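Lecture 7 notes. Example A: sequence first, then its structure tokens.
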Amino acid sequence: MINLLVLIILRGDPTAFQEYWMSTKMKERCVVVIPGWELMSYFSYKTNVCWFLQQDLAEAIKALHCEIGNAATEERYIVVGNGSSQLCQAALFALSSLSEDKPLSIVAAVPYYSTYEEEASYVQSQLYKWEGDARTFNKPGPYIEMVTSPNNPDGTIREPVVNRGGKVIYDFAYYWPHYTPITHRQDHDIMLFTFSKIAGHAGSRIGWALVKDIEVAKKMVQYLTINSIGVSKESQIRATVILNELTKSCRIKSESFFEYGNEKVKSRWESLRWVVDKTGDTFTLPDYPLAFCNFFGKSSSTYPAFAWLGCNEDKDLESLLKEKYVLTRGGERCGSDKKYVRVNMLGPNKDFEDFLNRLLTIKYPNCFEGIPCFEP
């Protein structure tokens, strides 16, 4: 039943995988008990570059990347942060403070993750300055390009655009097999990952960077030390337990989180495409090519965590959906056009189903309250 008075917020909270973690086996395996006298010190390992990183978490991170085959961890420093958002800011600080020229230009190809602009502009730093779209950037001098792949918000596979010898920060939040084929092992100077988007544990606020250059790693740790004096050990312990379970689950197909997650997001994408098709030429969605996934051992498509929904008419799609009590992130915030919105594909089941019904009512107003229009 549709209740049009209920607000649906489709802005990025990744709770779609909660059912998996509520299953009997995982419910028992992922319990974390911490006595009141443990983890009281600021320090984990004083001699490590990242002195607040729990060693068990570092090992769990390396084990999962090895199992998935999505990123090189050899000869790298692991820097843990309060989500990859904080690590992005730390990386901007590190690269710009080590540069002789300031402020460094920060760019990203449109459509870009809207938070990049906010992070680069919020504190009005003299070390760096947001310069917008990488495709139109022609300012001389050093720069930092943000590359998200698969991209948030449109799910495309990205490479650097400027290619003039600048620094590149790679955000691989979604380079996991339930979202996209793992075609090769990424191997770059700075690579960011987040616990939030792997399996939905956004509330733990854990992310990590794989960094080649020790001086960059030290500067990132300096920023994290000043900004938050490290990262919660309780969150690190929980992340360690869950990452280890993710690695173990890869070896038993019936328990594999990535098999489960892939089926979940694939089903949602099929449902959304069905609805968009039913609306004729009202809405648009990107198409994604097939590619061979080394993890699954077969060809598959990309099923992004967000849908880049477009409107064929010149309308403000964010406002149009808001009239249906659906909150999305407008395309203009991503450097693009107002006829696009970013839709979260990882929300609760009911929210997603209600969203599909409300999307249909834009084309078919006779789908009135109380009669579901969408039948997957």
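Example B, a different protein, same format:
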Amino acid sequence: MCGYDLYENDSAAWDSDNGIYSTQMYTQRVQQILASHDPRKPIFLYIAYQAVHSPLQAPGKYFEHYRSIVNINRRRYAAMLSCLDEAINNVTLALQRYGFYDNSIIVYSSDNGGQPTAGGSNWPLRGSKGTYWEGGVRAVGFVHSPLLKNKGTVCKELVHITDWYPTLISLAEGQIDEDIQLDGYDVWETISEGLRSPRVDILHNIDPIYTKAKNGSWAAGYGIWNTAIQSAIRVQHWKLLTGNPGYSDWVPPQSFSNLGPNRWHNERITLSTGKTVWLFNITADPYERVDLSSRYPGIVKQLLRRLSQFNKTAVPVRYPPKDPRSNPRLNGGVWGPWYKEENQRKRPRKNKAEKKQKKSKKKKQQQKAGSFPTCQRAVIPA
């Protein structure tokens, strides 16, 4: 299936797609918003850049500084990141130009670790995107603001993405209903002043529908937890993983090689047969090289109990099969909401003039959208 997926609020933004690289397009839109907004009034901007992510593409000029990088994926990745750096700078300049900067907070965050096969690097952390190892769940980030009390410091406390909501609400002097049991905490004093984080644990994930580890069992989980289930949890210094945590190699930087996976054979690891529980002291061993599960069974049991407690609050997984009615071909060539309730489908019959007008409008829309015979990936030469 192929469809158009650029939106302006609730409508497909056909007129906004002028072949502009998306990182630059989003930045231009932010500049327009700031230029027309009253800086005396509050504003929240969530800028979800598509970089850095595959497909690895960037405008040609950003490759100039990276000709020496032999690995083509790493070179493209570096070029994309340079464009993103420029975008963040341009957003910051716009905040200053239009009078927002002195009372603003910029949070830069990512959603997961890098993908080494697509130019990313998590070295010296273990694993990659899509895994529960630190290379998959740790993400780079920073907070920049004139409002920070301690600038230029590194925060080593526990902070999770769910903490941004209560933190930002508090900074904006908003109120959160006390009856709402949020997963997040207000961590502004932790970030700004270096105080201890109110957070003591992070549930990285529990995935009940992921492929079960063949050798996992309730017995291996001391009757507390079925270790066939893919899960990971952090409690203070300790991190526990069960099931199949995913690809577990340590992948050195690829900047100087184009030789394929053999270049890191010395760091490859074969998971022990039958093993479905791992325990690490992440503070002392952030690279997850020393498994302590057999040495500290008491800690393992404590973390398994915490996993079990979290799991009791989980709602049932809803993962419906693909539905052909979602095909953009049936919805004006656009990806978007498609499901209609039965009472919405039963509409009164339209007269001939209305039908003709609708048919003409649909034809015009399809001409603009194109027939979408295949999804083609644009190629931007290096």
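Note on Example B: Residues 72-97 form the longest helix (26 residues). Confidence is low (pLDDT under 50) at residues 369-373, 377-382.
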